[in-house]
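Researcher: Quick test of sequence recovery. Tokens follow.
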């Protein structure tokens, strides 16, 4: 017992000395120097080269739930880089993943709910600062011009300030202004080995809403945005390697709405209940897996984000082995000339 007390006393003394040392400017400056060196070196390391089709989860949350960024998926090949949606918090995850925003070619919007468009300007700014050599194009269904023009107008003075501060040679004014392109269902872009197709999503009363399929050298990924499972979903996933689909846990949302109502929070109860009719339930996605030949299904835009292991298990009830819950910073590698899908957890 005496030895334990001596050890504890020694530990407390060491902790006290450590805290004292951290108050000394010389120690602080040395730690600052080492910390900034580490940050600079980490930022200078490029994304590892790969011939694969790679898919990164930059945001896996819906407005119901906290702790994750809102909807954002990145699709990268050796020659291409596109984002699908740009929800709140996702730009920070793009930076944490070390994605090459200086070569970002476009942002594809599935629809115009706030949790899919909140950081359009943030990702534009981040890639402009990194040296993107062309204006960022925002692709989307009818109405994308209104959204894009609104962002450009809202942040006009921000662009002026930044160019005025850093100079036009570093921040070329024209490269900070967003471009836009209205798309319709079908093939919307072909660039070398990459083909991007849009399909009609079912997210009433939002119309139009779309999802996207990327095909690259024999590998493919479908990203739903927000949608129920419908005939277009079944058609677009035919032969796909990977499907990232928004997913709603019906038991959890039902229980949450009921509890809110019982607690007198009638407005919140109705809002929660309302979301059940325009997001794909986990049961409908399991049925989709049975009816299609898609190789892997990852639930994202989780309604709600499960904050603990119990709710995760409820979310995963009945799912087969080729289904999983996505989370921020997870990424998938689809090697060329292979059927493999490598799942990389954060």
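Model:
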């Amino acid at each position: 017992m005496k030895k334990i007390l001596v050890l504890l006393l020694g530990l407390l003394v060491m902790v006290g000395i450590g805290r004292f040392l951290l108050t000394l400017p010389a120690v602080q400056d040395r730690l600052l120097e080492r910390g900034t060196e580490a940050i600079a070196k980490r930022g200078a390391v490029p994304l590892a080269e790969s011939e694969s089709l790679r898919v990164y989860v930059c945001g896996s949350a819906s407005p119901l739930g906290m702790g994750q960024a809102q909807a954002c998926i990145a699709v990268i090949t050796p020659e291409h880089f596109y984002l699908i949606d740009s929800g709140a918090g996702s730009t920070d995850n793009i930076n944490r993943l070390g994605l090459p925003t200086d070569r970002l070619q476009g942002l594809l919007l599935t629809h115009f709910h706030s949790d899919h468009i909140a950081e359009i300007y943030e990702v534009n700014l981040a890639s402009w600062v990194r040296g993107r050599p062309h204006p960022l194009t925002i692709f989307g269904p009818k109405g994308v011009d209104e959204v894009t023009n609104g962002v450009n107008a809202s942040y006009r003075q921000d662009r002026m300030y930044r160019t005025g501060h850093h100079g036009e040679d570093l921040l070329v004014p024209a490269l900070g202004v967003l471009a836009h392109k209205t798309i319709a269902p079908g093939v919307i872009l072909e660039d070398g080995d990459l083909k991007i197709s849009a399909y009609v999503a079912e997210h009433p009363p939002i119309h139009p809403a779309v999802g996207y399929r990327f095909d690259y050298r024999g590998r493919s990924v479908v990203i739903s945005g927000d949608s129920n499972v419908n005939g277009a979903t079944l058609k677009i996933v035919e032969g796909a390697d990977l499907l990232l689909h928004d997913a709603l846990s019906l038991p959890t949302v039902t229980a949450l709405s009921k509890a809110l109502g019982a607690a007198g929070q009638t407005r919140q109860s109705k809002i929660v209940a309302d979301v059940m009719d325009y997001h794909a339930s986990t049961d409908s996605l399991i049925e989709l897996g049975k009816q299609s030949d898609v190789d892997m299904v990852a639930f994202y835009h989780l309604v709600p984000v499960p904050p603990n292991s119990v709710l995760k298990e409820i979310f995963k009830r009945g799912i087969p082995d080729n289904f999983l819950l996505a989370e921020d910073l997870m990424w998938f590698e689809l090697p060329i000339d292979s059927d493999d899908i490598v799942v990389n957890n954060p």
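The chain has a mean pLDDT of 94.
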